[in-house]
Amino acid sequence: MGGDPTRRHFDGWLGQLIRLRDQTCTDPYCDAPLRHLDHIIRHSDDGPTTLENARGTCERGNYVREMPGWHITLIDRGFHSGPHTIHITTPTGHHYVRRAPDPP
Question: What is the DSSP string of 12-71?
Answer without folding.
Answer: HHHHHHHHHHH-B--STT--PBP-EEEESS-GGGT---SSTTEEEE-HHHHHHHTSTT-E
